[in-house]
Specification:
Organism: Peribacillus cavernae
Order of helices and strands: EEEEEEEEEEHEEEEEHEHHEE
CATH architecture of the largest domain: Orthogonal Bundle
Protein name: S1 motif domain-containing protein
Pfam families: CvfB_1st, CvfB_2nd, S1_2, WHD_CvfB
CATH superfamily of the largest domain: Winged helix-like DNA-binding domain superfamily/Winged helix DNA-binding domain
Number of domains: 4
InterPro entries: CvfB_fam, CvfB_S1_2nd, CvfB_S1_3rd, CvfB_S1_st, CvfB_WH, NA-bd_OB-fold, S1_domain, WH-like_DNA-bd_sf
Family: Belongs to the CvfB family.
Shape: elongated
Radius of gyration: 27 Å
CATH topology of the largest domain: Arc Repressor Mutant, subunit A
Helix content: 10-25%
Length: 288
Amino acid sequence: MTKIQAGTVVELEVEREADFGFFLTDGSEDVLLHNNELEEEIEIGNTVHVFLYHDKQGRISATMTIPDIQAGIYGWAEVVNVKSDLGVFANIGISKDILVSVDDLPSLKHLWPAVGDKLYISLKTDRYGRLFGKLATEDIIQEIAVQAPEKARRNKSVEGHVYRLLKVGSFMMSTEGYRCFIHETQRKEEPRLGEYVEGRVIDIKEDGSLNVSLLPFKQEKMADDSQVIYNYLVNRGGVMPYSDKSTPEDIQFHFGLSKGAFKRALGKLMKEEKVYQEEGWTYSSDRK
């Protein structure tokens, strides 16, 4: 392996100057340090500390901006662009964004990271020497994860970015560094890879990881469900052929709720005197 390799930080000697920058060398290979990538004045013969990457033409170039994310060194990088045929591009703090390949992303594109999401990555090169972002494996996450304190409170709020997707659920790294698991039953919909989510602690595991729910408390969920029912009622002119006597199948089909949740939410609306029921139908109180 040669010293000149994208994704690494190296010490190179300033060999010669050009109108657009300086050429650096390790004694056998040269790379360009463009004027735009200078952070201090340099002279021929100086030794400089630089990060190597590929420019837009695919040539190895140097920058004096040293990113926290390097080959073998992981960090959070924000997604800045999405290309359906290539993958997603992430900003590691240099002028060139780094591609996380489509081959390393979920097969379902609606679960791909969106602009603004964050990925925990390092850098890697393929057999052609091209530089890519490398998603952290579960082993890497377990190495850097912080154990949650035993006194961590259930129902305490927790937030962070999703770093792994499985059929049974999603894994999140909290802002404190806790490793969190969100079971598929504890979310309304599957979050994207890299998505920022907020939830609450429902269990503290022996290994210091957390089980987290993205579902609201029952009181909050009841308010959400009540709004769903009321919106449906209003859109039908204030009358609907459903009540607490309706079948679970009808309720699930039209509202996406269990019968128990439907009855609780409908009861809340009746208590607030927003609706009333007659002979198996529900009416808006505005119709009286």
